[in-house]
Design goal:
This protein has 1 helix and 7 strands; from the N terminus they run αβββββββ. By secondary structure, it is α+β, with helices and mostly antiparallel strands. The protein has a domain of 86 residues: Immunoglobulin-like. Strand 6 and strand 7 form a beta hairpin.
Length: 139
């Protein structure tokens, strides 16, 4: 019984030391993952952000036209289902995306993904409207 008591005391001490170390060094117990980019079109796309741990005051994704985007460039908040809609994007442009979460005054970033938006729909030079393709039906 004494051995068990000493062992549990040592484990508790190690836990408190590592927990205190994490707090004092500004580390967070929050982890973030960036899901696949889906529904890509010429001006927007979607992704999911996975966030584990707490406390989290804000979560979403950031994207930019260069690798390693940060929230200071362009950020989008996640909805209650952790889905993020990346809007206001330029057609035919490559973007890099990372999920993020704010935990206290720390920002935790997830893995980086990249995608390219589709080209803008072609317009008819004469009318300025989108070209329509007509399919003839054979009789």
């Amino acid at each position: 019984m004494k051995t068990f008591h000493k062992l549990s005391s040592i484990i508790c001490t190690l836990f408190l030391v590592s927990f205190t170390s994490a707090i004092s060094s500004g580390q967070s117990n929050v982890s973030v993952s960036t899901g696949n980019i889906t529904m890509i079109n010429s001006t927007w796309a979607s992704c999911f952000v996975g966030v584990n741990g707490s406390p989290v005051s804000e979560k979403g994704a950031c994207c930019w036209t260069k690798p390693a985007p940060t929230i200071s460039q362009k950020k989008f908040l996640a909805n209650s289902q952790n889905a993020v809609k990346l809007t206001g994007l330029a057609p035919g442009t490559k973007y890099w995306v990372r999920g993020y979460a704010k935990s206290g005054n720390i920002i935790v970033y997830g893995n980086e993904m990249s995608f390219t938006t589709t080209e803008a729909p072609k317009t008819n030079q004469n009318t300025g409207k989108k070209q329509e393709t007509k399919q003839e039906t054979k009789k």
